[in-house]
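input
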Amino acid sequence: MAAPDQDVAPKTIVLDGSRLLETKTRLRLGDIHLRARLDQLTAQADKWLKQGPWSVTDKTICPPSGDKHDYASQAPYWWPSETSTGLPYIQRDGQRNPEVNNYTDHGLRRKLFQASLVLSLAWYYTEQEAYAKHAGDIIRTWFISKETRMKPNLNHAQIIPGVNTGRYIGIIDFSQGYTSVLDACAILAAGATGWTKSDIEGFQQWNLEFLDWLSNSSFGMKESAAENNHGTFAIMQKAAISLFLGKEETARHELLLIQSRIKDDVSPDGSQPKELVRTRSWHYCIFNLVAYSRAASMGRKVGVDLWDYKGPQGQSIHTAVDFIIPAATCTTQWIFPEMSFEAYAASDVIQASADAGNLTAKKALSKLQTPPEMDLWELRPAVEQLDDVGLSKVQWLNGR
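output
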């Protein structure tokens, strides 16, 4: 591996490694604007230094398999029914049941995703070994170490008590943020002290097995066939893992599948009908665009142009972004169902669209609401989910 002080463009998956290297160079040359952003990033990284590592074996509730190495979570929008036992549970879309927190894997997984990326980026820009060491410990504990590793499946994700022992749509627990871990590992592989050849090989093997499960299990195949954001994220995740493993043809195949979905997901006016029917329509329209934007970033690496692709009636990722811009800039009110409107949630997807050449998005940049922990786009130019239906803003700020 490269020496820690050698400038290397990491072979990242969603992030553009060459841009990370360019940003690092600008920081070394004293860019004051970027330095302020870096201070925000390292402040987050310093918080994560005091937390973790975490493991699926930390949970106190055993999954239906009886093996704590299996990931388990409870369906967030399902509540006890009015029976003596509360079973079977019934759905209340958009209303998160606090009982789901009893399954700790879901919350720890969220911390794993956020911490690994923030710490690895902080190491890359500052070369402070403590950041890389802790990022490596976090990833190693969850995915590699025999005593604490998660098995590469999601058979027991989003359990509905009294109904099932897991659901295929539970794959969204990982697909919504797992690319952050892939990018974190790619960054560490650019020369981080303590991230060894054995770690790299162990994580690659975990992903080989996980990709096989995602591609060939009944849950994986059903989730990829889903017609809303679930399907977009599931296919995007497979493309990302394939790219991480060097399977470029497989990644290209998956990304072409995403391209074929645009005409059905986006209307000619840019709306997303399958997401607008949700009680959290603002969140889910943006959420689906997070998946599309990440896929478009990967497409550039394997020759699949998702940004400029247009369906038969002009449907595109850009037009879907244009549809949300008036509400994101508070020019007009979001008139569709939404239980908790946060304008800042759209910041990253609009940044990404502007970066890909959308003039309407470029004009909107100065009017965007700043996310709670500042705008870190220039340090990590890839779309993140900036709001969370399961957390209050205060909890989000505190990394909980």
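quick obs: Confidence is low (pLDDT under 50) at residues 1-5, 391-400.
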